[in-house]
Design a protein that fits this description.
The protein is 46% helix and 12% strand. The chain is of the alpha/beta class. Strand 2, helix 7 and strand 3 form a beta-alpha-beta unit. The chain is globular.
Length: 241
C-alpha cells in the first residue's frame, strides 16, 4: 500500500509558469529596475522563462547566473517574491485531473515540497476545494535558507509534520525536474547512512514539458500524462512486495 504521496508544485500540480513569469517581471520592477528596463533574454517571453527555469533549478542560481543579479539584488528579489505573488491577480490553474488524484489519495499522508511560496500554494488548494487532501505544504520559507531541494531537509520536515515512518511507509515523490530525482536519491542516501531502511520512489511528471530522457539522473517512473500518473500511482499502491 502507498502510505505517503509527496508532490512538487510548479509544473507538477499547477501550470504556474505564466503567472510566475509575470510575478518575476513585477519583482524586477520593484526591486531590480535596471533589469526591468532591459530584461535578460531568459525573460523575453513565457517560453524563454520556462526554458531558463528548466535549466536553472535553484532560484538563486537562476537569478545570479541567468538573470545577472548581484547577490544583494538576489536576496531582495527573494524577499519580494511572496509580496508580488500575493498582489498578482493571475491564477495558476491545476493541471486537469490532478485534483482527482489528490482526492483519491486524500486518506494517505500527502504533502507538497516546493521552492514556491507555501502561502500561495495553500490559496490555490483552498480555491480548488482541496485543503483537506494535503496535510502539509513545505514552501521555500519553511526550511533553512541554504537547504532546499535537493537537500533532504524538506523531506525531514515532512516526516515531522505528516508523521511519516520512513522505515515502514511506502513513499513516492512526484516532480518535473531532475532536481526532484536527486531529492529522492539524497533522501535514500541520508537514511542509508543512518542505518534506516526506506522505500521512496521518484516519478517524473513530463506532462508540463520537461524532458526526463535528457537527464543524467533517471527517475523510477515517468508520467507523460495525468492519466499515466494515475496509473503509476495505482500500480505502486497495489504492489504487494
Amino acid at each position: 500500500m502507498l502510505n505517503a504521496v509527496l508532490w512538487d508544485y510548479d509544473g507538477t500540480l499547477a501550470d504556474s509558469y505564466e503567472k510566475n513569469y509575470y510575478v518575476t517581471l513585477e519583482v524586477l520592477r520593484k526591486g531590480v529596475p535596471r533589469l526591468y528596463r532591459e530584461p535578460p533574454a531568459a525573460l523575453a517571453s513565457v517560453a524563454t522563462f520556462f526554458e531558463a527555469v528548466t535549466v536553472f533549478e535553484d532560484w538563486r542560481k537562476l537569478y545570479t547566473e541567468c538573470y545577472g543579479m548581484t547577490p544583494e539584488e538576489t536576496e531582495l528579489a527573494g524577499r519580494l517574491w511572496s509580496v508580488c505573488q500575493r498582489e498578482s491577480t493571475l491564477t495558476a490553474p491545476l493541471f486537469d485531473g490532478v485534483g482527482e488524484i489528490l482526492q483519491r489519495y486524500g486518506d494517505r499522508k500527502q504533502g507538497i515540497v516546493s521552492q514556491n511560496s507555501g502561502e500561495e500554494i495553500r490559496v490555490v488548494l483552498h480555491d480548488n476545494g482541496l485543503d483537506g487532501c494535503v496535510g502539509y505544504v513545505c514552501g521555500y520559507t519553511d526550511v533553512p535558507q541554504f537547504s532546499p531541494k535537493p537537500s533532504p531537509v524538506p523531506f525531514l520536515k515532512c516526516v515531522e509534520m505528516l508523521h511519516i515512518q520512513p522505515s515502514a511507509d511506502k513513499i513516492v515523490y512526484i516532480g518535473d525536474h531532475e532536481e526532484d530525482v536527486l531529492f529522492v536519491r539524497n533522501i535514500r542516501r541520508y537514511y542509508e547512512d543512518n542505518g534506516v531502511p526506506i522505500r521512496i520512489l521518484s516519478v517524473a511528471a513530463s506532462y508540463s514539458g520537461s524532458r526526463p530522457a535528457t537527464w543524467e539522473h533517471q527517475p523510477d517512473y515517468v508520467a507523460h500524462s495525468i492519466k499515466e500518473l494515475a496509473a503509476i500511482l495505482k500500480e505502486i499502491d497495489e504492489e504487494t512486495v
